[in-house]
Design brief:
By secondary structure, the protein is an alpha/beta fold. The protein has eleven helices and 13 strands. Helix content is 35%, strand content 20%.
């Protein structure tokens, strides 16, 4: 007689009534005092990381320090809640090793997320939850940072105030802000996409990943997921009405807010590897539908396979080099 296997059991942390459900909105700690209500908060670069990834990518911070780009680089360091008491010592230990002039640090955390991660089984799930949370948090933290600096969240174009969101592991060479001001100063948002990866060369217009191509007199449909075409490693937002709507919808999609917080954490997009990019696509479809004129006139797109401002390759001598997307690197 063949023994019957035990049926699969849903782990406790994935039940709807599990105490880990709820808000995982990132909270800020140890924000640099010289940023608050100062000119630094009007134009800056924001990147986020955990402490280990930050320590292994100090070269990226050094490249910004040595570059011609004058913008302050603001680094958000994610800490699990039970390590929060160490936040000041972590920051001071990095400052003690390097004489940064343009780089500033703060801590962010989520007590609820830390509680859930403690109940996960296996490093793989912990990695998914924490690393992908960090990727999404950089967009969600932006409005809080503007509010700390008392900026009017509806009153600017990129010329007046701007925050660049980048990956931590980038190398900075030139003053990309000056080029952006000259080319896109009247816009509210700049987003990036990979034209080499997209079958649809009108992707910024229609946000579709599919396109018809003619091959040997046959019409074939080529497809790529839109969430793989849009890129989260370089973007720019002004404190504006359009940016605020985009960032609020992004938060809804990625980590949930208000009514969506009742859903279990495993049903939210932030724990998916492309969750930040998928949340961007969902947000843009909403913006495109509700504010079609603003979508057309106030959002600029940068093809990071061809741009000399930000690029996935050094071939175009970009001011900021996005290493993570360079397939020529190991």
């Amino acid at each position: 007689m063949i023994a019957m296997k035990n049926s699969f059991q849903k782990p406790a942390w994935r039940h709807y009534k599990f105490d880990g459900n709820g808000s995982i909105k990132p909270k800020i700690n140890n924000f640099p005092a010289d940023f608050i209500r100062s000119s630094l908060g009007k134009r800056f670069v924001l990147a986020c990381s955990d402490i280990d990834y930050l320590r292994s990518n100090i070269k990226s911070l050094i490249s910004h320090e040595q570059s011609k780009c004058p913008l302050p680089l603001l680094i958000g360091i994610y800490l699990p809640f039970d390590e929060l008491s160490l936040s000041e010592s972590y920051i001071n230990s990095i400052k003690a090793l390097y004489s940064f002039k343009k780089t500033y640090f703060f801590i962010f955390y989520s007590e609820r997320l830390s509680y859930v991660v403690k109940n996960l089984s296996g490093n793989d799930s912990e990695w998914d939850y924490q690393i992908n949370y960090i990727r999404c948090a950089r967009f969600i933290l932006l409005t809080q940072i503007w509010q700390l600096n008392c900026l009017n969240l509806t009153g600017y174009t990129i010329k007046g105030a701007a925050a660049y969101i980048t990956d931590l592991d980038t190398l900075t060479y030139g003053d990309y802000d000056q080029k952006v001001l000259k080319e896109f100063g009247d816009k509210s948002i700049i987003l990036s996409w990979d034209g080499n990866k997209s079958p649809n060369k009108k992707f910024p217009i229609d946000l579709l990943g599919s396109s018809w191509v003619v091959n040997s007199n046959n019409k074939l449909c080529r497809h790529q997921l839109p969430s793989r075409i849009i890129k989260a490693g370089f973007s720019c937002f002004s404190p504006s009405k359009l940016s605020t709507y985009f960032l609020e919808i992004f938060e809804d999609c990625s980590i949930g807010r208000h009514g969506l917080e009742v859903e279990p954490l495993h049903m939210r997009l932030f724990n998916y590897y492309y969750g930040d990019q998928l949340s961007m696509i969902h947000s843009l479809h909403e913006i495109k539908s509700l504010f079609h004129l603003e979508y057309r006139d106030s959002i600029a797109w940068m093809d990071i396979s061809k741009s000399s401002i930000a690029n996935l390759s050094l071939e175009f001598s970009p001011d900021i080099y996005l290493l993570k997307g360079d397939k020529s690197k190991p």
